[in-house]
Amino acid sequence: MAKRKLDPFDIERVRLFFEAHGIEVDPDMLESAALLSGGVPGDLTRMVDRLRAEEDRKD
Known about the structure:
The protein has one domain (11-58). The chain is 66% helix and 0% strand. It contains three helices and no strands. It is globular.
């Protein structure tokens, strides 16, 4: 199976994804997340999981 490079998500799509999962992030973080995602939805899900884990540690 060949891997293809996907286009990164745009910032608005990343913002909507994070909002749907109840994660508040600043605009600078959204741009970074969009670039780091590489267009792979699973990467955004992992980011949400990590952010939730960080929030849980603070509580």
